[in-house]
Amino acid sequence: xxxxxxxxxxxxxxxxTAVDAIWLAxxxxxxxxxxxxxxxxxxIKNFTDIGPYIVIGPGIAIPHAxxxxxxxxxxxxxxxxxxxxxxGHASNDPVSLVCALAGVDETSHLMMLKQISQVLSxxxxxxxxxxxxxxxxxxxxxRQ
Amino acid sequence: MMKKILAVCGLGQGTSLILRMNIExxxxxxxxxxxxxxxxxxxxxxMTSDLIVTSAELAQSLEGHETEIAIVNxxxxxxxxxxxxxxxx
Lengths: 144, 89
Description:
The structure holds two protein chains of two kinds. By secondary structure, chain A is an alpha/beta fold. Chain A is 41% helix and 20% strand. Chain A has helices spanning 18-31, 37-50, 106-120, 123-131, 135-141, and strands spanning 9-13, 55-57, 60-61, 75-85, 95-102. The radius of gyration of chain A is 14 Å and the shape is globular. By secondary structure, chain B is of the alpha/beta class.
């Protein structure tokens, strides 16, 4: 099963603020029917309440909410910013890649996070994600 | 007794799980066996463990906790995790 679909990838994203960027990354999940709009609202609330801890690598933010906030199908979206924005993180700002996660249950969540972690901790793969203009190429990285 | 390590994030669901997987990978490479759990920051403040691993942001909200805290800023960087764990486990 593909957690990431081409329709959930935006490689020329524009956002003014962190909240805008999370909103737009979340909206990609809504468009592919993986989450309900309430889930996106919850992701933003988590960010504004708990803070920029979701920026877990240099330039990489992983916004997410709880399954009961409106997740329907496990998956992720990828919103790449043409101009990075500040999320208020002390060491990993500014953010250029926002991967919104929709976790439905523990098993699918674990598989998805393992895949994401394997891709994003690989410097070559991360470099492709940061530079490619081909959404298919991004999807393929998550298939390997 | 097996050491217990807590990987902590805001919700205890997404980012702490990535951190936990990478901690387990590093421990595996170091040949160390430990019980690694992923939890949210409010649960972590009420739990006992041998080491807490989290980001600088969340470490602030755990200030005053008696457990030693190792700070990791890049959860994808296995070298940084290794450095944070070494001498503490």
